[in-house]
Amino acid sequence: MPQANRHRSRALSTSSGTMDTTMPDELTEHLDALARDDCYRVDAVLKDSAFETTQRVFFVGANGAEQGPYVRKYLDGDAGLGLAYERIMKAQRSGRRFLHVPLIVDCYTAGERRAVVMEYVRGETLADVVYRCDPSVELACDVFPKLCEAVSELHEGFDPPIIHRDLKPSNIMLTSSSLTVIDFGISRTFNDGADEDTRRFGTRAYAPPEQFGYGQTDVRSDVYALGMLLYFCLTEKTPDAKARKNGFHDARVPQPMRAVIVRATAFDPADRYGSVVELERAFHAAARCSGIADALSEAADPAPMQDPLREAATGDPRTGSVEKRRVPHTTLGRMLSRVPFALGVVWDVLLAAFFALLCVVAVIQTIDPAQGSAQYAAAPLGLRALSYGSLVLLVVGPVLYLVSDRRPLGRFVPRLLSIPIERDMAVCFVVFLAGLAVFMVTGQFFPPVDVNLAAG
Prior knowledge:
alpha+beta; about 450 residues
């Protein structure tokens, strides 16, 4: 054993006879990493793939007390994954604050894998929010500017910029008051001297062509993904090849916003917006051109009652407890919007059937006066038509419209979803009063009927 130790000592010495400290330093770092790794208790495995393992963990102190939860990721070091976490952690430890990036607690090497420990981000994914609230222009007006701001933090807050490369609905976390971008596993630093990316990862529906071998990714690659996310917010559809081929035509996508999506997702990066800031400006301009400037200003207003996501989350944002209910996107809200979308369709069908039945009865009473009262039977045809028409169309119609679920109708007429409920109520109230006035006035012109004659 002593002989072996002497050989080991000679192996650690340099040709000049001085001791090389590289090996002991590496050993110390390795042992330190193992000790840090053992300080966490695994609560759940959230993801397990060939290149990444994601766990929810708790830090266990020397006295057995636990702190957390945290997220720990093991990333394939040979594949170059996770380097962005180290840059973010270094920036955060230098005192810089990022509003839309999780706090990185620790980065270390565990064997051949890179380990990252970060805060556990609570809330809902963008996919969950769009499903719960239903896709709409107004939802996009609330979420998309915040999403652009989040990605801009990565592009403009680092030099060279960090390219996320995996922006998709499941990697966007929202609470009542925040938006956080997560999963920087395949994020990379822009390399001005590279012709293309070394590794090809990403979600195909949201990743740009250059991410799969057509060139090097840069900030315009994230612009591409943001364009796809805007389409998702408006339609709840995955932007597949068919949607791209059709130019993102959809009844729920206003033409100005469709133009923004088309340019942001151009095949050639040179044809896209040059930055996320430029994309956000184009989105604001498209919102104004679409006649929804009011909705956009409401989304930008930090007042609690003006934020649809804040109204949506009725639980405690610190615990991520959010009541799962569909909520309106306007100040007072859409009536019956708490029910699931399918029940909303059924409700609208029942209202439409009831309205159609009333129309049929009104037509029969107008054409065949014998079915109604003697006074109506004695009135001219035009007067009967005006009286019944005002009652059904102008009195009952607005009431049924107000209690209808606007979401199914919005699939065919997207403009309906951006009209504030206050405006709907005001217009319907005026129409209701006008119809009631017409009905009462026409009644004054009905000829009197001799009760005795009618009885005889």
